Amino acid sequence: MAHIDSGDSSGRKKNIELNLVPFIDLMSVLITFLLITAVWTQVSMIQIGSSLYGKKSDTQPNPTPPPNADVVLKVDVKEGGYVLTVGRQVISLPMVNEQFDDAGLVAQLQRVKQLYPEKVDAVVSVADAIPYEQLIKAMDNCLSAGFSAISVATGGPQ
Q: What is the membrane topology listed in the Swiss-Prot or TrEMBL record (predicted)?
């Protein structure tokens, strides 16, 4: 234990014992909590194909562009529904019964996947008024159709 010596008016020193047990208990609980929390944040991450934290060295060759890289696949989530852009073709998927047409979007994405089987990238943009959950649904729809490299565009749909 830690001792603190302090003198009193008579010149004698008092021996005061500092109790460290509650502090050690608190620190062990905090460390355990932080370790458990760190594990859960890793479990909840979505792998979307590209690594934001990946390091590139000078010895790595430049990757070759994927096939059909010039064909842009973009999913716009707007107040009126989905707008799917494949190259220069624009497909509008209006809302059905005031709900986003997720089944229609997946069907159109699967049709695009049949036309371009090597294509794995997609861009999702969301209007500011749309809830965050709808962005996640659009990303899930892209993943279920086979597009694993998903990018989120900022600034909203055009």
A: Single-pass membrane protein; Single-pass type II membrane protein
